[in-house]
Structures are given as C-alpha cells and as structure tokens.
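[recover] target loaded
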C-alpha cells in the first residue's frame, strides 16, 4: 500500500481489521449455540463437549502476549495475515470434522490463529490513526465490533444451526477470512518491525505462554472439579510460579517479551485491571441471562439470541455514534465511569428477576443498560493503549487482549460455579428446579455487580489524573500517545 495516510485508505484498513476481529469474536459466541447439535452429531460426552470451547480459550489466551511481541519484531501486518490464514484453515477443518478429537484439535488451531490476529490489531489502529479525534472514532468502531459481535453471534448461530447445520457456524468464517487475507496486503502498512536480529526472549515466551495456558486451563476446569480440589489448586500454583518466573525474567532479559516499563503507565496498568473486572462480570452475565431464558422461561436458542439483540443495537449506537464525541468533550475517564455506572444499575435490576419473569419488564431494561458497554469499552480501550510507544504497541495490544481473555475465563468459571452451587443448595432445600436455577443466577448477578463496582472504584482512583507514561515521558509529537487521555 503506497499511501496509508489518505483518509479513505485508513478507514478501509480499519474495515479489514474489524472484519478479522468480527470473525474471531463471532466464532466465540456462535459455537455456543450450536453445542447441542455438535454433541448429537459427533457423539461428544457431556464432559468432553466443553473442550470445544476450552481448547480454543486456552490457545487464544496463552498466545496473545507472544503474538503481540512478534508483531512488534516481525511486523504487525505479517503476523495479522498469518493469524487470519491459520484461523481460516482451522475453521474449514472444524466444519469438516468427523469426530470429537478432530474438532477439538481444530478448535485449538483456531485459537492459535485468533491470538496472532487479535494481538496486533489494536497496535495497528493506534499507529494508523494519529489524530486523537480520528483515533477515538476508530477505536469506537473496533470496540463495537468486539462488544456487539458476541450478541450477533448468538443470533446467527441459532439461525445457521436451525436452517442448515452446525458445520456452517465454522464454514461462514472461510469467505470472510479469505477476503480479509486478500485485502490486508493492499490496505495495511507493510511495517517491518524492529527485527528479529536482536532475538526474541524465548525463555520468557515459554514461561508466559505456559503460565497463561495452564492458568486458563485450571480456571475452565474449576467449574467441573471445584475451586478447592487438589487438581485445581496444584495447577493454579504451578501457573502462578511460571508467571512469577516470567516477571523475574522480564526484569533481567536484554530483549524482554513484555518490557516492564509499559506497566509503569497508570493508563495501561489501570485499564487492564478495570477490564479484567468488567469483562468478567459482563461475560458471566451473558451466560446466565441466556441460560435463564432457555432453562427457566423456555426460550429456544434463536429466541434467546434475538432477545439479547437490543443490547447489540444500543452498544452499536453508543460506540459508533456517541463515544468518540463524548470522549473528546468529557474525557475517556469520565465516559468510562458513566458507562460502568450504567452497567452496575443494569446488574442490580437483574437481582430481582422472578421465576416467571416477563421479557418487557424484567429483562429488557437491564439488557438495554448493557449498552453502557458501548461507552465504557471504547474509553477503556483508548486508555489501555494510550501509554504505548510505537515499538511497544503490539505487546501492549497483546497484553490488553490477554487480560480480556483471562477476564472472560475467570468471570464465566467463577460466576457459573457460584450460581451452580447456590442452585444445588436451593434444590436440596426443596425449591423447584426453576426457582433453584433462578436463585443461582441471582447470586451470579450480585457477584457481577460487585465486580463492576470494583471496576468503577479502580477507574476512579487509579485513572484519576492526566499525564504520560512514567519513566521516560513521550514527547508531545509521539504518534501513539494521546495527552488528553493518558493517565
């Protein structure tokens, strides 16, 4: 591409990045709806079926940080295209899978490709859009892709499964992936990266990847084995030791995988912590409200997906239409706090959900308030990337995405385990199945509200004043710094 500075070229490049992200985000939610059909067709046992999700989550979460650093060294466009190619091929393999083993292996490969493509996407956006107003709009569009894609995926997954077959939940990725692979070299800058001659921190990569993968594995397995089981505690302890070794290694390595200086930025560290809490609460909500509609109210897969569609519409309207203007006028921190406040109110409304809830009065209001994510996520993404220098944009992007995936895994596992335990206790006490399930979901909503309140407090305290990254302040002309939004 010869003139990426042209406005039209920049927005076309953003469209390619968003298309790649949409494919990856859709895949995460579209498959969930198809799980019963996959189980019936391929003969999965109930315990093995969860690995169609877990295999992807482990690979994706474990390789994001490494993928981001590879983008800084080898070139973000190369890593992005390579990730899309792996993801697209793996999607085709998933679609033609003839047994559980093949599908799980292909899902792991999908996670590898998704991690490589996702890890560098934000880094390319912040270097592509240097004007603060344009960058705010671009991040709003990218955030909308991630926030609304999950809701759209549930609807699309139900339609494809009912109208065609579960296989098409994977086949649909192939034309999108091919189109993005063809267009990416024409629209995205051929950044060379800083080069691999200095060497990549192999030991750090091994420690980080194995530590995160093992940690995610222990989290997703805790829902079945219990949080206090010997297996869960042992795996968690080993994961923490590996990650502690990784931190020590980064402090001493000549070419660290994650330069510890990036964590001295209040915006980077604070935004990642806020994201960990908020994303955990939001994805736990998505799982619980979908289960409530299907298991308690008797909705079908397609109907429950359509019931959540208003959230995607509101998120889209706020993130695409208002978030950039509000961020420019009031500042990302204040917009983030307003979005988190809306999410807390919505979660508190769900705590009173009855067994015989009505959609219009009991579900629609909190679903609409989920639109607060359309305000919070663009502001949070801008804050999380604002401390990144040009040479660190990839690894900061990878860190931000890694935090997101760990938040998803933790939120779903912790809230689902708590909800299931409460439901079992209520059932043992004589409650009906519907009442027991509803009571469990209410506990999940309560804990989710607590996580969102904690996220609000962290944003209020940690992201409290403008500034630049600690250590070596970036000059005012730094293309990836936004002085009005760094903290």
């Amino acid at each position: 591409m010869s003139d990426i500075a042209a406005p039209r070229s920049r927005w076309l490049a953003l469209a390619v990045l968003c298309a790649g992200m949409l494919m990856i985000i859709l895949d995460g939610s579209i498959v969930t709806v198809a799980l019963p059909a996959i189980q019936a067709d391929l003969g999965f046992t109930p315990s093995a079926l969860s690995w169609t999700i877990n295999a992807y989550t482990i690979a994706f979460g474990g390789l994001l940080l490494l993928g981001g650093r590879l983008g800084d060294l080898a070139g973000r466009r190369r890593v992005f295209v390579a990730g899309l190619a792996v993801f697209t091929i793996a999607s085709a393999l998933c679609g033609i899978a003839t047994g559980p083993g093949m599908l799980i292996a292909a899902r792991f490969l999908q996670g590898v490709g998704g991690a490589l493509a996702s890890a560098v996407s934000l880094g390319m956006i912040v270097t592509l859009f240097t004007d603060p107003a344009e960058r705010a709009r671009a991040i709003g569009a990218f955030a909308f892709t991630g926030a609304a894609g999950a809701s759209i995926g549930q609807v699309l997954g139900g339609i494809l499964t009912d109208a065609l077959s579960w296989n098409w939940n994977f086949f649909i990725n192939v034309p999108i992936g091919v189109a993005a692979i063809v267009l990416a070299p024409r629209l995205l800058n051929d950044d060379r990266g800083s080069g691999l001659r200095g060497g990549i921190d192999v030991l750090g990569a091994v420690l980080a990847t194995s530590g995160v993968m093992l940690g995610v594995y222990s989290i997703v397995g805790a829902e079945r084995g219990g949080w206090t089981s010997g297996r869960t505690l042992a795996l968690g302890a080993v994961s923490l030791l590996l990650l502690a070794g990784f931190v020590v290694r980064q402090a001493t390595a000549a070419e660290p995988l994650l330069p510890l200086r990036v964590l001295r930025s209040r915006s980077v560290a604070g935004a990642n912590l806020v994201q960990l809490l908020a994303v955990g609460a939001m994805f736990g909500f998505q799982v619980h409200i979908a289960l409530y509609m299907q298991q308690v109210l008797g909705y079908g897969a397609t109907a429950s997906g359509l019931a959540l569609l208003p959230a995607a519409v509101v998120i889209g309207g706020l993130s695409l239409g208002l978030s950039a203007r509000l961020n420019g006028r009031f500042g990302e921190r204040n917009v983030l706090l307003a979005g988190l406040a809306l999410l807390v109110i919505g979660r508190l409304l769900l705590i009173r959900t009855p067994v015989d809830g009505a959609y219009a009065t009991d579900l629609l209001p909190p679903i609409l308030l989920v639109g607060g994510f359309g305000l919070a996520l663009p502001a949070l993404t801008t804050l999380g990337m604002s401390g990144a220098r040009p040479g660190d944009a990839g690894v900061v992007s990878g860190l931000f995405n890694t935090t997101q995936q760990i938040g998803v895994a933790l939120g779903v596992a912790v809230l689902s385990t708590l909800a299931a335990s409460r439901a079992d206790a209520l059932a043992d006490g004589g409650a009906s199945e519907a009442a027991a399930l509803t009571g469990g979901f209410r506990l999940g909503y309560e804990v989710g509200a607590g996580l969102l309140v904690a996220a609000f407090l962290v944003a209020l305290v940690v992201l409290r004043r403008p500034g630049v990254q600690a250590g070596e302040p970036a000059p005012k002309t730094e293309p990836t710094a936004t002085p009005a939004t760094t903290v």
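[recover] notes: The chain has two domains: 7-200+257-462, 201-256.
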